[in-house]
C-alpha cells in the first residue's frame, strides 16, 4: 500500500472507543493533527457492523455498515484506531455488499481504510520525541490487526521511537487473548483460560504496562488484570503515544 | 451400491454446473526451480537422511557386495534376504562367516513365518534418490518383492550415485511415471519411526529399525 | 454418523469445562502444540517458497474440485482397469455395510488398520466389533487410544493428550506380560512385538487414502511407522476408505500436496514412507494383497460441494496444522469437540456433515483470530466459512444441513434493536449517550455480564463519548 501524504483524513472512532476509550480516540485524532493533517470526524458514525456480522446476523450488519458508507464520500483516507474494525471495513465490507447496489461504494471505501499506526508510520512517517520517565512495556498485537490488516511491525516501530521506553515482546505475541467479541461470553471458560495465559505471558516480560491497538483486547486484558489485582496497566497505543510525547 | 454412485455423481455434476470453480493455473515452477549439482545432491540426501538415523556406506560398482558382506558380518547379521537381480553379485563375493543368503523366490503365503521371525536383514536395489527430501525411490518387482524392504529389522538399499534427482516431481515427470505405475512404488526416507508417545522420536516401530544406504559410485 | 444420537445436541461448553479443569491435559497440549508449531515454522522459513508452494497446492486442490465428478469417474475407470475394485457409499452406514460384506466373504476374524480419519467418521471399529470381527489399530498413537478405549484427540497425533507416564501405566495394565517402563523406545518396542504377530495373522488390512490419482488410479498414503505399508501389503485383502474429495487429477499433483501435508502436519520434510498403490498383486508377484478395494464415501460431502463458498471446505488435505495453531484447541484439546475432526477444520466440516442442529455451537467455538487461515497450506478461508455457518444457523439461505436450526426470536430481536440503534445517527447518539452515562450502573449479575465478570472487572463506560469530545474540540464533521 502506498499513499501520498494527504491534507485531510476521515477518522472512524469505532463504537468501543466511543463508549469505553474516548480519550484514546481523541489522542489518535491529535496525533494526526500534530502531523499537520486535517481530521474530519463524521458525527453520523456508529459501528462498523462487525458484532452482528460475526454473530451471523448479516442483514443487520449490512444495515449498520451501509449507514457508515454514506459518511465517507470524499476521496480521503479513512483512519481507524482499531485493527479489528479496520479489518472489517477493508476486508469484509466488500464481501458484505457483494452483489448489492452498494458494492462499488463499499469497495471504494474499503480501499481507503488504514489502521492508525499503519497510517502514522507508512504515510506520515511520524517522528516521536519521548518526554516520559523510563518505563518497561509490552505490546499486545490484535489478531485482526496482524492477520487482516497486516499490521505487525508498525506499532512496535512507533514504541521503539520512544527513548525512555523499553519494549519487551511477548513470548506468544501472535496468540489470541481470547476476546473474540461474543466468544468471550459465549464460551466464557475458554476465554478466561486464554486471557489467563495472555496475562502470564505479559507478566513474564516484567512490563509495567501493556499497550495495544484494539479496545476489544484491552477490555478483556485489562479487565482480567484488574480482577486479578495485577499491577500492570493497559492502554491504547494512541493514548500512550500521546501521553509520552506531550510530557 | 450403484445407486449411490449415480446419486453422488449426479449431485456433484449438478452442483458443479450451477457454480463452476475458477481455477488458477498450477505453477510447478517452485518445484522445477529446486536444482542442485550432482555432488550437492548426494550431500544433501545424505545429510537429510542421516538426520533421521539412516546409515551410509560408500562403495564402488566392483566392491559393493564385499562392502555389504563385511558390514553385515561385523553387525552380527545372521540371515540376509535378497531378490534375483543381485543374487549372482552377492554369491560371487560371499565368503564363509558371512550371513546366510536367502532368496525371496516364492509367494509370501509359504514364507510368512520365516519372513516375520527368521530374517535379520533384507537388501534391495533402488531406482534412485531424491535430494530435496532425502528419499530413496523403491520400485518393487516380482524379482524384488515389496516386503523385503519392510519386514526384516535391517534394510540395506543400494543407491547408484548417478541416479540422483532433485525432487520427487522431477523423478516422476522425467521418467513419465504417469504412463505406467507399478503395483507399488515407494519413497523411503529413513528407518521406521514414530513420535506418537509425547512427541519423543523412537525408531523401528513397525518397519525396519535400521536403514543402511550403500552409495555405489560409478 | 447418523444414528440415534444424531438428534442430541453436543454440549461443547460442558466438555470444554471438563477439559479446562484438567491441568495435566492442558500442559500436554500446550507443550505438544508449541513443538509442532515451531517445527512447521522451520520448514517454511523461506517465505517465497512457502507462498509459491501454497499457491500450487491450493491450485491443485481447486482444480480437482472444479472437475470432481469427472475425476471420480476417471479414478474409478483407472482403478478398475488396474484391478482395484471401487465401491460408492452415500452414507457411513452404506460404507460400513460394504466393508463388512467384503470381510464376511473372505471369512475375516482379524483386521489390522492403518490410520484413517474416514474410518473414525464411520465408527468402523465399533461397527465391526458388533459383527464379531476384531479390528486392531496399528498406528502407535491409534493403538494407544484403542487400548485406552478412547478416541483420537488430534487427526495426526491421536494420543497427543497423553504423556509418557499415562501411556506406561496403560501398557502395563492392558498388554499381557508388559513391564512398567517410561522408556519410550521400550514402550515402542512393546507395541512392535504385539502388532507384528497381528500383521502376519490378519486376513484384511484397512487404510485411508491421502490422495487418489485419477490419471493413473493410484492410492497414495504417507506414514512414518511402516504400519500403513504392513496393512496394505501383508494381509490378502486391502480395503482403502476415502472421502470423495481426496481425488487429485494428475500424478504430478501429488508431490506438492504431500510436501505441504507432511511439512504442515509435523514439520517433517517428508514422511518416512510415501506409499503409492496402483493394483493388487499381479501374476508372478510374490507379495501384496490379492484384492484391493476402494470405498468412496460421500457422507454429506456432495452437499458441502453444492455451495460455492462452503465448497472450499473440501480442499482440506488433513494436515492438522489448523489444530496446532488454534488457541482454542490448544486450551481444550481434541476430545472436547466430541467429533472425529476437532479444531478449526472440524468446526467447519462437522457442522456441515452432521447438521447445524446438533453441531450449531461448533462454529462459535472460535475467536476468529485467523491463526488457522494464516497457515492453511491450501488456503481454506476457514474463518470466512465459520462466519457463513453462523449465519446459516440463524438465517438459512442454502442447503446446509439443518440451516436455521439455531434461529431464536429473542436473539434476532436483540440484533434488530442493535441495528436500529446503530444505523440511525440520532438513535445512536441517544443510545450511546445513555450507555456512556448509565452503563456502569448495570449489575454484574446480568446474564452476559456475569460470564464476563467471572474473571474480569466490568467494562467501564467513559461517561462521555468520543462524539461529544470531538464536538467540544471542534473537530470537523464534514
TrEMBL record, chain A:
<feature type="domain" description="Cysteine-rich">
    <location>
        <begin position="137"/>
        <end position="221"/>
    </location>
</feature>
<dbReference type="Pfam" id="PF02754">
    <property type="entry name" value="CCG"/>
</dbReference>
<protein>
    <submittedName>
        <fullName>(Fe-S)-binding protein</fullName>
    </submittedName>
</protein>
<dbReference type="InterPro" id="IPR004017">
    <property type="entry name" value="Cys_rich_dom"/>
</dbReference>
<feature type="domain" description="Cysteine-rich">
    <location>
        <begin position="9"/>
        <end position="90"/>
    </location>
</feature>
From TrEMBL, chain B:
<protein>
    <submittedName>
        <fullName>Lactate utilization protein</fullName>
    </submittedName>
</protein>
<dbReference type="InterPro" id="IPR037171">
    <property type="entry name" value="NagB/RpiA_transferase-like"/>
</dbReference>
<feature type="domain" description="LUD">
    <location>
        <begin position="43"/>
        <end position="216"/>
    </location>
</feature>
<dbReference type="InterPro" id="IPR024185">
    <property type="entry name" value="FTHF_cligase-like_sf"/>
</dbReference>
<dbReference type="InterPro" id="IPR003741">
    <property type="entry name" value="LUD_dom"/>
</dbReference>
<dbReference type="Pfam" id="PF02589">
    <property type="entry name" value="LUD_dom"/>
</dbReference>
Automatic annotation (TrEMBL), chain C:
<protein>
    <submittedName>
        <fullName>Iron-sulfur cluster-binding protein</fullName>
    </submittedName>
</protein>
<keyword id="KW-0249">Electron transport</keyword>
<dbReference type="InterPro" id="IPR017896">
    <property type="entry name" value="4Fe4S_Fe-S-bd"/>
</dbReference>
<keyword id="KW-0677">Repeat</keyword>
<keyword id="KW-0408">Iron</keyword>
<dbReference type="InterPro" id="IPR003741">
    <property type="entry name" value="LUD_dom"/>
</dbReference>
<dbReference type="Pfam" id="PF11870">
    <property type="entry name" value="LutB_C"/>
</dbReference>
<keyword id="KW-0479">Metal-binding</keyword>
<keyword id="KW-0004">4Fe-4S</keyword>
<feature type="domain" description="4Fe-4S ferredoxin-type">
    <location>
        <begin position="307"/>
        <end position="328"/>
    </location>
</feature>
<dbReference type="Pfam" id="PF02589">
    <property type="entry name" value="LUD_dom"/>
</dbReference>
<dbReference type="InterPro" id="IPR009051">
    <property type="entry name" value="Helical_ferredxn"/>
</dbReference>
<dbReference type="InterPro" id="IPR024185">
    <property type="entry name" value="FTHF_cligase-like_sf"/>
</dbReference>
<dbReference type="InterPro" id="IPR037171">
    <property type="entry name" value="NagB/RpiA_transferase-like"/>
</dbReference>
<dbReference type="InterPro" id="IPR004452">
    <property type="entry name" value="LutB/LldF"/>
</dbReference>
